């Protein structure tokens, strides 16, 4: 396990709410920025005292920092400096720490870019979603392809690595327009890309319209599951061809450019989430994982009632997590490492693994078990097979619902 900490800082502010988004983010008055950042800085400075009070082990050295949201680039440059000032007061940030800031194309002010360089940011994640202007506009994005290309150019000139997000299955999207976006990303020469298959959630505007049968946000134009799966498979193949290796279900990188912060989640390494709806995983003095999260209501967060209750992950649930988080990685899980950590209980899953291999959803090569391409597209169904297996004398329960797996 890593001896360094990952810090996730949630910034919930956006200039516009995307139709498909169900995150705890939105359009709030700029006057709230200062109050919010003050609360975030208080939480950072108070993290050590809270950990000692609760009996959690909080590493003092930080190996990765991720500002997500929301759109952190909506903050004023000085607010970004305040956050990093609090981090540097409270933790020892490693000299080679990976520091990521999520930004919206066309919404990166020159002084904000300067501040990112000053706080030693190393990469930017751009929420592009589509390089086809009409598709982007239809979902509430405020950029064009030309804006994305210009942003990538000047971010890289500033010495920052770049990730670009794309979503397969947007309303009105076709295989042709999808591959136009993928080709455009390949042409940018970015170090990292993330491909997501659209998931329509009932808490998003698009989801509510789909349920209610409306037409304002294009719910009737959402592609079928089979069409989305075909887009995803074609996109994966093209990125691999362009030198971006798939290392996780949704993530692709050039050698050495994998997101170290995201890898913490899938490897079950410690991370501390600060801000609205931010989640954490630390360990207690007995070495057990402890998960906890903050409120998703901005008014509650600003009022100082952010902290939710912590839950110690029992041994059975931890083993389940080891399976379904590890299987998100292209390299899969090592059975030798699993047995070293969990002992004979791993054998209880032999039947599940055999069944999924026979169904073409998993592949087994020597010591390792990994998802096939079909398994990646049906990953939720695969992961469900590892939940509820009797181990350690109890029925394991699902602890996965709050895991932050969509950072880029």
Outline the fold blueprint.
Blueprint: E1 5-11, H1 31-54, E2 56-57, E3 61-69, H2 77-90, E4 92-103, H3 110-118, E5 123-129, H4 133-138, H5 145-157, E6 161-168, H6 175-188, E7 192-197, H7 205-212, H8 225-241, E8 245-248, E9 251-253, H9 260-267, E10 271-274, E11 279-284, E12 289-293, H10 298-302, E13 311-312, H11 315-326, E14 333-334, H12 335-342, H13 350-358, E15 362-365, E16 368-371, H14 373-377, H15 379-384, E17 390-391, E18 394-395
Parallel strand pairs: 1-3, 1-10, 3-4, 4-5, 5-6, 6-7
Antiparallel strand pairs: 2-11, 7-9, 8-9, 11-12, 12-13, 14-16, 15-16, 17-18
Helix pairs in contact: 1-2, 2-3, 6-8
Quaternary class: single chain
- Supply the helix-strand structural class: alpha/beta
Radius of gyration over C-alpha positions, nearest whole angstrom: 21 Å
In helices, the fraction of residues equals 25-40%
Distance between the termini: 22 Å
What would the average pLDDT be, to the nearest integer? 88
Q: Order of strands side by side in the largest beta sheet?
A: 8-9-7-6-5-4-3-1-10
CATH topology of the largest domain: TIM Barrel
What percentage of the residues does DSSP assign to strands (E)?
Answer: 15-25%
Shape type: globular
């Amino acid at each position: 396990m890593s001896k360094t900490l990952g810090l996730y800082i949630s910034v919930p502010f956006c200039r516009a709410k995307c139709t498909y988004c169900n995150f705890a983010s939105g359009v709030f008055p700029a006057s709230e920025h200062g109050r919010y950042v003050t609360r975030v800085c208080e939480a950072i400075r108070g993290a050590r005292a809270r950990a000692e009070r609760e009996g959690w082990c909080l590493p003092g050295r930080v190996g990765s920092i991720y500002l997500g949201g929301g759109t952190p680039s909506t903050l004023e440059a000085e607010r970004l400096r305040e956050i990093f000032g609090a981090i540097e007061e409270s933790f020892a940030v490693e000299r080679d720490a990976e520091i990521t800031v999520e930004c919206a194309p066309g919404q990166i002010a020159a002084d904000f870019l300067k501040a990112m360089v000053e706080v030693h940011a190393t990469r930017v994640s751009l929420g592009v979603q589509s390089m086809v202007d009409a598709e982007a506009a239809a979902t509430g994005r405020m950029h064009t392809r030309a804006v994305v290309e210009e942003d990538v150019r000047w971010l890289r000139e500033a010495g920052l690595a770049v990730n670009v997000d794309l979503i397969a299955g947007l309303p009105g999207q076709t295989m042709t327009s999808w591959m136009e976006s993928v080709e455009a990303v390949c042409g940018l020469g970015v170090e990292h890309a993330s491909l997501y298959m659209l998931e329509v959630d009932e808490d998003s505007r698009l989801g509510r319209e789909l349920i209610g049968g409306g037409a304002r946000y294009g719910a009737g134009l959402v592609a079928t599951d089979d069409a989305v799966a075909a887009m995803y498979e074609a996109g994966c193949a093209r990125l691999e061809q362009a030198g971006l290796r798939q290392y996780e279900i949704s993530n692709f990188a050039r050698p050495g450019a994998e997101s170290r912060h995201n890898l913490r989640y899938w490897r079950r390494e410690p991370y501390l989430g600060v801000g609205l709806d931010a989640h954490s995983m630390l360990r207690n003095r007995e070495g057990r994982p402890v998960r906890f999260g903050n409120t998703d209501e901005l008014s509650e967060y600003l009022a100082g009632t952010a902290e939710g209750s912590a839950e110690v992950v029992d041994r059975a649930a931890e083993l389940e997590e080891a399976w379904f988080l590890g299987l998100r990685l292209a390299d899969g899980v090592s059975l030798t490492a699993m047995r070293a950590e969990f002992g004979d209980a791993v054998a209880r899953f032999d039947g599940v693994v055999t069944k999924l291999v026979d169904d073409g959803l998993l592949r087994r090569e020597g010591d390792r078990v990994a998802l096939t391409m079909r398994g990646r597209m049906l990953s939720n169904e695969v992961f469900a097979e590892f939940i509820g297996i009797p181990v350690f004398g109890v029925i394991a329960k699902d602890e996965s619902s709050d895991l932050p797996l969509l950072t880029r």
